[in-house]
Amino acid sequence: MSPVFFGFGILLLVLQTTTFHLLPSWLGRPDLLFLLLCFIIIYFETGPGLILTLLLGMLVDVFSGIHLGVHSLAYLLLFLVLRTMVRNLAIQGSPHQVPLVITGYLATTSFVHLLATLLAPENPVLWTWPLLLQNVIILGIICLPFFHLCQRLMTLLAERPPRSWIPLRRRPPNRFKV
To answer: Transmembrane residues, as ranges (predicted)?
Structure first.
C-alpha cells in the first residue's frame, strides 16, 4: 500500500510544481501533497507513515526547497505533533480533520518561513497573507473530499492485491509441442 501512496505523492508533487503554476493566481494553488501527508499521518501505521513523510519531505526539498532538509524537518515535526494528537484524541472523525489540517498547514508554513529567513537572511522570503489565507480556504474546502478519495484508494488496495488489477491475457496452448 505504501508504494502506491508514494507514487500518488510523486504525482501530486509533479502536478504542484508544473501544472498548478500555470493557473491564474486568483484561482489559487492548493497544496495537495500536504493533504496527502496529513492523510498518511492520520490513517497509516507509525512506521510506514514516518517513512513516507520523510521521503515526500525530501522530494519537496529537492523540487522546490530553498535549503535541503527544511521541509523534511517541518514534515517530521508535523508528523510528531499530529501523530501525538491522533493517538491521544479522537481525531479519526471527519469534523475534527479540517481544523487539524488547517492548523497544521499554518504551523508548517510558518516554520518553513522562519527557517528560510534564519538560514538566508540576505534573501528575504515574502510572507503574503492573502495568498496564505486563500490556500487555507482551499485546503479547508477540499480536505474532506480528498480524504474520502484516499480512503477509497486504501479500501481498494486492501480488498484485492495490485497485481489483480492488470488483466493478464491467457496464451493459447502450444500447438507444436510434441
So the answer is: 6-27, 34-60, 66-86, 98-120, 126-147
For the entire predicted model, the pTM comes to 0.84
> Is 166 contained in some domain?
no
Domain that holds residue 121: 2-160
Confirm if 99 and 143 have CB atoms less than 8 A apart.
no
Contact criterion met (CB below 8 Å) for 124 and 82: no
Residue 71 lies in a domain: yes
**Contact between 36 and 5 (Cβ < 8 Å):** yes
Residue 24 cell numbers, joined: 491564474
Round to whole Å and give the CA distance between 44 and 157.
Answer: 13
Q: At what angle do helices 32-43 and 70-88 cross, to 10 degrees?
A: 40
List, for residues 115-160, the tens digit of each pLDDT value. Answer: 888 888 777 777 788 888 999 999 999 999 999 999 999 999 888 7
Dihedral sign for Cα 157, 58, 77, 19, please.
negative
d(CA 100, CA 166): 37
Is-contact 85 103, C-beta < 8 A? no
